[in-house]
Amino acid sequence: MKTKKINHVFQTIIQDELQENKIYISLDYNTAIHKCACGCGEEVVTPISPSDWKLIYNGESVSLSPSIGNWSYSCRSHYWIRDGYIEWAENWTEEKVNKIRGKEKRKQEINKRGLFKFIKKLFK
User: Fold this and answer.
1) Alpha carbon distance 68, 77 (integer Å)
2) Which residues pair with 86 in a beta bridge?
3) Do 118 and 79 reside in the same domain of the chain?
4) Which of 11, 24, 30, 98 ranks highest by number of CB atoms within 10 Å?
5) Are residues 55 and 82 in the same domain?
6) How many separate domains does the chain show?
């Protein structure tokens, strides 16, 4: 269910004061930042890379994948940004959060090792 519109703003450098219901995107720094969708006021930083979040811009709105799970914040909110809307997702248990974090860490390590091997081959 799409519950709240979130507007996108492309900027080279993200401004200090973030507004509610806006996602600020810096392609130069491969980062998207927004205030938590629950309204708690926390700033949510999503790095954009093959091993982190994927940003899709369709000419009118943005989507981020995978979902955003603010497990380190007291609100523990969990949602998707799809086609410029916040879509709330299910709450996760601590066990599930830890399992997914472990998978993500292994994926990032594999991607880093692959990049290092590729660079080494270039300079042989």
Assistant:
1) 8
2) 4, 81
3) no
4) 24
5) yes
6) 2
Q: Which tokens in the block code for residue 84?
A: 């410029």
Domain carrying residue 120: 93-124
Name every residue whose Cβ is closer than 8 Å to that of residue 29 and which is 6 or more positions away in sequence: 13, 14
CA 32/CA 10 separation, integer angstroms: 9
- The tokens for 110 are 């594999």
Q: CA torsion, points 88, 92, 97, 99, in degrees to nearest 10?
A: -120
**Quick count: other Cβ atoms within 10 Å of Cβ 94?**
9
User: Contact at 8 Å (CB) between 64 and 55?
Assistant: yes
- Whole-prediction pTM: 0.76
H runs (alpha helix) in the chain? 94-122
Q: Is the domain of 80 the same as that of 118?
A: no
Report the DSSP beta bridge partners of residue 23.
8, 34
